């Protein structure tokens, strides 16, 4: 018995494994449980919102799925009483953006709107309660099919309510004996109909249907019943049995989708029209019953199926776009480097292996493989090159040997031992086959000439030619270990392409020329280089441009490029397959090197084992690498089979959905984001801003970046920081106070500037010491402090300046006094020198001349006495007496003047009578006056007195009268007094010609320097004594020319 149980168990296990292998060959399957994201393994309901998120009702929370990350709404981040949800329901107000999650206790309701779910306890009060019979104990609201709750309580139910999504107040109420239909909250129609099982009912596109025991559908309309027949893929299934109990309806009540499970096949009802129900097979060989699948959702755009299990979590299926063909079971037999077309839908490899797909019959699309013994016999481990010539013959090489087989590969036609290692073979447009020989360089064979031996090319010998490609009709491109060379076929001229010397080039792609049956669209200029270690290059106009790599540098090991008919480039690598838009590559190459902004990095889609490969490692050492079959399929050699696909049939799954600022986490405290502004606390630390975007393709295709700027500033190129696709979270260790803008940018797909951008404002409050008022107060305090400092400093500096000025003033005063003393001394010295000069001149003129006269006259006395001329002697003696008196008076005046100048004697003042003083001088000058025939007129009163020095005043009057008499002839010399403005004027006027203006200005002036300068114009001492003695006596001096010269001696009456 135990043995039988064991055998049955092993058989079931084998069958299960076999079934798994079957569906996994067709579908990429992702299985999620509580071990890899789900909070719990019971998925009750599935729905998709308008943003593209998948929502799951589980017994441990409401779960949002974006394709790679699960986020659970439960008691930790909401006000739920219990995290158990049993279904999702639509909105009855017509809002298609809202979905409601209903808890087991019917009190916990969460409203799904946008990327978040919030508590909404009013759903029943404002919507469900408006539905008739909804408040009884005998009603139930439909939550999709299958539904075990209905089956368990079916006998107790009287009212089964089916809500119609996306419409206002639209629903069906199914009773035991009738069906009612409401729209816009009003009954539209009703129909009598007996119901025994409520679980037979579902809706599609707003219409009510039931699944009959015969396997057909009934549609309930206002005008009656309509019988619907199944059609489509389900009828093509020979195992389908109408009315079988294994046929089960799956109905998604929120997404308005209906499915039929028939054994291990799962059909989607695409449309119901004209009495027919169109079905499409979307899943095969998967046991839904064994996995307890209870809910389903189908993404009709991307053909992705989501299945929720009661115990096994979530399954996600998508049909593989790629198919891997293997030869036998040995991995060593499935390492392929190259291939060539064999028939319509098959290829043959250098190993002699034929692989392909059967294109007709019961085994259509199944893998076909066979062996060609003739080719296999020539294979010696070198599987790097094989081709089919224009005559259909197959060429292969192995080591030193070159083989030619017939078109079926069954017979060897020719064989050559080249004598050196053959690295590669290539057929150009003319059918000529080129050979790259290890040390001997380039050879060729003209296949139109039977039995022709390989001929050495006339150009220079290039060693290690690994790949050969044809450019235009007259050019070959040769890939060697030493770089890329271009060769002119006619002349043999060979040119090394600069910059390629150190590149490990694996292949070339020349747009516009189909290579090895791989289609290429027209391309005008440039060639693409695939390298090992450096990625993709573009060579044009003698310029080599390197394309940017992906983040993980998978494309660094690029094997070759295949262009499809839609303008996409497919690039196999050691880490998977890349899809680029050729126009993006060419735009990047065109913009590189220009003095503009950095060119935009080309977008790519990445494919790996999840898409249908047995391995991510493709091979690219052989030539040709890829081939395109007549039926449009492309075959790529890999380390584990040949990967086949039709590029034009692949719908690129682009990350073009919107993205959202989901939640913010600060010091492990999570808050949901519901607005475009986030207000943080002061000094926030460990800030995590989570971004979410629905994308169900390979996560490596998601390109998100962010920039943090001060509010009002636009991000520049240097501000953008890439986010990891596996964890799109913006992290800040801390943020200082201020207003920031976080801008996030997502690449949506191929093309230029294909971005989505969103911004959110982040405000970090300022500390009290960062506020405007505090800063204003600080500024005011600072300005006051500066003012006080400046004022204090100014006072201090002023005080210092004053002290300095006092010191400087004292020193300056001392210097000025010294300078003044020096100047006075200099003036005194100059004056004394001047006086001495004048004394010498005066003595020479006024004294020496009279003395000479006295000597002369005395010499005449003795001779006159001898001749007794006594009268004449007496006259001479009288003249001598007069002259002696004049000399005496002159000397006396000089002596008095010299005393005042040199001795500085004190001048004694007294009352002086002018009349006798003048009379004395008249007596003295009478002879001289008579000699000049002048008349002296004294009109001075006898009572007039002045306060002065008698002797020095006499010197002044003496010199004035002497000067008047000298320059007056036969004229009057008049002395008189006048009173002007309480001043006494003693005026001595003559009738002479007058003095010069210069001398008059000098006498009237006060400038001592001028005194010295002007006084040099005459030799006498008299006027100098007049000016200086008048100044010493305090007598004003005024000279004028008025019919002669008038000297005014001006005395103060007081």
Q: Report the sheet with the most strands, covering strand number, pairing sense and barrel closure.
A: 8 strands, mixed
What's the gyration radius in Å?
65 Å
CATH topology of the largest domain: Lipocalin
The number of helical segments is 12
| CATH A-level architecture of the largest domain | Beta Barrel
Q: How many structural domains does the protein architecture include? A: 7
Largest sheet strand order? 15-16-17-18-22-21-20-19
Structural class: alpha+beta
Mean pLDDT: 87
> Helical proportion?
10-25%
Under CATH at level 1, the class of the largest domain stands as: Mainly Beta
Keywords: Coiled coil, Membrane, Phosphoprotein, Transmembrane, Transmembrane helix
Organism: Dyadobacter frigoris
Enzyme class: transferase
Coiled coil: 801-832
Please summarize what this structure is.
The chain has 12 helices and 69 strands.
Describe the model.
The chain is an alpha+beta fold. The protein folds into seven domains: 32-130 and 290-317, YVTN repeat-like/Quinoprotein amine dehydrogenase (Methylamine Dehydrogenase, Chain H, 7 Propeller), CATH 2.130.10; 137-285, Lipocalin (Beta Barrel), CATH 2.40.128; 338-417, Beta Barrel (Thrombin, subunit H), CATH 2.40.10; 507-645, 7 Propeller (Methylamine Dehydrogenase, Chain H); 660-766, Immunoglobulin-like, CATH 2.60.40; 771-903; 906-1052, Histidine kinase-like ATPase, C-terminal domain (Heat Shock Protein 90, 2-Layer Sandwich), CATH 3.30.565. The chain is 23% helix and 35% strand. It is built from twelve helices and 69 strands. An eight-stranded mixed sheet has the order 15-16-17-18-22-21-20-19, with no helix packed on it. Strands 10-11-12-13-14 form a five-stranded mixed sheet, with no helix packed on it. A five-stranded mixed sheet has the order 56-62-61-58-59, with no helix packed on it. Helix 6 runs antiparallel to helix 7 (870-903), helix 9 packs antiparallel against helix 12 (1022-1032) and helix 10 (997-1004) runs antiparallel to helix 11 (1008-1015). The longest helix is centred in the C-terminal third of the chain and has 95 residues, at 772-866. It is elongated.
């Amino acid at each position: 018995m135990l043995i039988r149980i064991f055998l049955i168990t092993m058989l079931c296990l084998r069958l299960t494994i076999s079934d798994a292998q079957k569906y996994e060959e067709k579908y990429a399957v992702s299985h999620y449980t509580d071990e890899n994201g789900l909070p719990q393994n019971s998925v009750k309901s599935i729905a998709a919102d308008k943003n593209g998120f998948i929502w799951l009702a589980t017994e441990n929370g409401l779960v949002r799925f974006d394709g790679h990350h699960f986020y659970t709404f439960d008691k930790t981040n909401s006000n739920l009483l219990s995290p158990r949800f049993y279904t999702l329901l639509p909105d009855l107000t017509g809002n298609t953006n809202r979905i409601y999650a209903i808890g087991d206790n019917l009190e916990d309701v969460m409203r799904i709107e946008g990327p978040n779910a919030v508590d909404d306890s009013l759903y029943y009060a404002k919507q469900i309660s408006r539905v008739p019979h909804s408040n009884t104990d005998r009603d139930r609201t439909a939550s999709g099919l299958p539904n075990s709750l209905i089956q368990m309580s079916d006998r107790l139910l009287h009212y089964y309510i089916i809500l119609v999504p996306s419409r206002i107040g639209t629903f069906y109420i199914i009773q035991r004996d009738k069906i009612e239909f409401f729209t816009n909250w009003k009954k539209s129609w009703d129909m009598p109909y007996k119901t025994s099982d409520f679980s037979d009912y579902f809706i599609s596109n707003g219409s009510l249907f039931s699944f009959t025991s015969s396997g057909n559908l009934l549609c309930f309309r206002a005008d009656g019943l309509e019988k619907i027949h199944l059609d489509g893929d389900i009828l093509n299934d020979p195992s389908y049995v109408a009315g079988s109990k294994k046929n089960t309806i799956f109905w998604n009540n929120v997404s308005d989708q209906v499915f039929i499970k028939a054994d291990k096949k799962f059909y989607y009802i695409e449309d119901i029209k004209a009495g027919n129900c169109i079905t499409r097979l979307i899943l095969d060989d998967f046991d839904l019953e064994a996995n307890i699948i209870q809910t389903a959702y189908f993404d009709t755009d991307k053909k992705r199926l989501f299945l929720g299990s009661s115990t096994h979590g979530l399954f996600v299926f998508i049909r593989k776009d790629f198919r891997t063909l293997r030869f036998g079971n040995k991995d060593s037999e499935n390492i392929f480097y190259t291939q060539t077309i064999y028939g319509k839908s098959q290829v043959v490899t250098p190993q002699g292996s034929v692989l392909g797909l059967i294109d007709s019959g019961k085994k259509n699309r199944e893998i076909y493989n066979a062996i060609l013994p003739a080719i296999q016999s020539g294979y010696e481990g070198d599987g790097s090159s094989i081709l089919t010539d224009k005559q259909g013959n197959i060429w292969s090489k192995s080591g030193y040997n070159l083989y030619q087989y017939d078109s079926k590969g069954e017979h060897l036609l020719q064989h050559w031992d080249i004598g050196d290692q053959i690295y590669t073979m290539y057929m150009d447009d003319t059918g000529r086959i080129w050979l790259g020989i290890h040390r001997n360089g380039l050879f060729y064979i003209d296949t139109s000439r039977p039995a022709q031996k390989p001929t050495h090319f006339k150009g220079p010998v290039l060693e290690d030619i690994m790949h050969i490609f044809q450019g235009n009709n007259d050019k070959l491109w040769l890939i060697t270990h030493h770089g890329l060379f271009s060769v002119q076929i006619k002349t043999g001229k060979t040119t090394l392409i600069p910059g390629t010397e150190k590149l490990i080039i694996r292949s070339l792609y020349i747009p516009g020329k189909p290579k090895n049956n791989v289609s290429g669209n027209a391309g005008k200029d440039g060639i693409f280089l695939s390298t090992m270690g450096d990625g993709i290059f573009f060579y044009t106009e003698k310029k080599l441009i390197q394309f940017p790599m992906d983040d993980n540098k998978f494309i660094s090991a690029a094997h070759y490029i295949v262009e499809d008919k839609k303008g996409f480039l497919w690039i196999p690598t050691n880490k998977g397959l890349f899809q680029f838009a050729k126009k993006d590559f060419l735009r990047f190459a065109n913009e590189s090197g220009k003095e503009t902004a950095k060119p935009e990095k080309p977008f790519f889609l990445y494919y790996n084992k999840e898409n249908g490969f047995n391995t991510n490692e493709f091979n690219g050492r052989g030539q040709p690498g890829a081939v395109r079959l007549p039926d449009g399929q492309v075959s790529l050699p890999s380390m584990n089979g040949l990967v086949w696909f039709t590029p034009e049939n692949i719908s690129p799954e682009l990350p073009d959905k919107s993205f959202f600022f989901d939640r913010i986490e600060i010091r492990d405290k999570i808050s949901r984001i519901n607005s475009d502004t986030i207000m943080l606390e002061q000094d926030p630390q460990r800030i995590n801003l989570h971004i979410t975007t629905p994308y169900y393709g390979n996560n490596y295709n998601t390109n998100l970046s962010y920039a943090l700027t001060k509010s009002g500033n636009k991000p520049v190129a240097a501000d953008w920081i890439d986010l990891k696709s596996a964890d799109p979270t913006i992290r800040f260790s801390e943020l200082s106070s201020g207003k920031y803008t976080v801008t996030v940018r997502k690449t949506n797909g191929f093309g230029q500037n294909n971005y989505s951008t969103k911004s959110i404002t982040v405000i970090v409050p300022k500390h009290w010491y960062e506020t405007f008022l505090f800063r204003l107060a600080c500024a005011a305090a600072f300005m006051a402090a500066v003012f006080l400092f400046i004022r204090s400093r100014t006072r201090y500096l002023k005080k210092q300046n004053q002290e300095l000025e006092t010191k400087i003033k004292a020193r300056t005063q001392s210097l000025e006094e010294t300078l003044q003393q020096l100047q006075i001394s200099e003036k005194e010295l100059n004056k004394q020198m001047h006086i001495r000069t004048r004394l010498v001149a005066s003595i020479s003129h006024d004294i020496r001349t009279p003395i000479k006269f006295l000597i002369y006259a005395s010499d005449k006395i003795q001779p006159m006495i001898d001749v007794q001329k006594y009268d004449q002697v007496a006259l001479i003696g009288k003249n001598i007496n007069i002259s002696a008196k004049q000399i005496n008076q002159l000397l006396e005046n000089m002596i008095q003047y010299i005393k005042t100048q040199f001795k500085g004697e004190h001048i004694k003042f007294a009352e002086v009578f002018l009349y006798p003083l003048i009379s004395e001088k008249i007596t003295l000058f009478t002879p001289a006056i008579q000699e000049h025939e002048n008349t002296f007129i004294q009109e001075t009163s006898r009572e007039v007195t002045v306060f002065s020095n008698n002797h020095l005043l006499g010197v002044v009057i003496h010199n004035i009268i002497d000067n008047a008499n000298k320059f007056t002839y036969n004229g009057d010399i008049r002395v008189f007094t006048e009173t002007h403005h309480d001043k006494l004027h003693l005026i001595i006027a003559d009738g002479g010609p007058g003095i010069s203006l210069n001398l008059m200005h000098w006498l009237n002036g006060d400038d001592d320097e001028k005194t010295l300068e002007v006084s040099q114009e005459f030799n006498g001492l008299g006027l100098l004594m007049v000016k200086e003695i008048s100044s010493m006596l305090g007598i004003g001096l005024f000279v004028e020319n008025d019919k002669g010269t008038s000297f005014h001696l001006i005395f103060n009456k007081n």
